[in-house]
Amino acid sequence: MSHSTTSLTGLTSQYAKQVAGDLEHNAKEQERITTEITALQQQLASLQQDHTILVSMQQALGIAATEPKPVNNDSATVPSPRKKTPAEPRKQTRKATAEQPTDKKPAADKRAAGNTARKTVQPTLIELVGRHLTEQSEPRSAAEITTALSQSHPDRGIKTTVVRTTLENLVARSQAQRTKQGNSVFYTDTNSPEPTPTPASETGSEPAE
User: Which parts of the chain fold into alpha helices (H)?
Assistant: First the structure.
């Protein structure tokens, strides 16, 4: 009996040590994973903030683009493995596909035509501003250009600050000229002759933009 009791005590002690070691390892793994999750959440928050800033800049520049949809990890599913099919049904599928080669082309053509139509109907703000400058024979201020574009495109919601930023981008690209008359700044197309600034004594105090 003493020998059996000693063996049982030894096994109990061995299992107790193993369980204690497993618990310690489990706690360390939980701490490590929690740290990684916290770091990833901080990276995600930083990326989301950068994304918001970039979208605002893109809208200010008048660049039309489709915002990518956020990834929803909860709805992500693992694709099921492909099942092997007999060789004969596979040949029949290929044959049926070859007999109907024109089904996908009209759909692709319609999508391409739709994209082209949208691009034609909705030009970017930088295109509208540049086109407006080429049509003018005299210098125009950012406020005047905003008024003209708002009348011709009331659905765009064009703002003076965005138009001024667009004009400065055109000047930086050498696609427009900037001149100053009194307290006001005027813009012209690069192909137009550079206007001669009028002295302040003759023009009086002109309103700023």
Answer: 2-60, 87-99, 104-121, 125-135, 142-152, 160-172, 200-203
The CB density around residue 134, as the number of other CB atoms within 10 Å, is 14
**Measured distance CA(207)–CA(183) in Å, rounded:** 7
Q: Which residues make Cβ contacts (< 8 Å) with residue 79, sequence separation at least 6? A: none
* Rounded distance between C-alpha atoms, residue 145 and residue 167, angstroms: 10
Rounded CA-CA distance 60/159 in Å is 10
Q: Assign residue 82 a region (left: φ > 0; alpha: ψ between -120 and 50; beta: otherwise).
A: beta
Per-residue pLDDT reduced to its tens digit, 43-93: 899 899 889 888 888 888 877 655 555 556 555 555 566 665 555 555 555
Neighbours of 163 (CB within 10 A): 28
Do strands 184-189 and 176-181 pair parallel, antiparallel, or not at all (unpaired)?
A: antiparallel
Residues, the chain: 209
Verdict on whether the full-model pTM lies above 0.85:
no
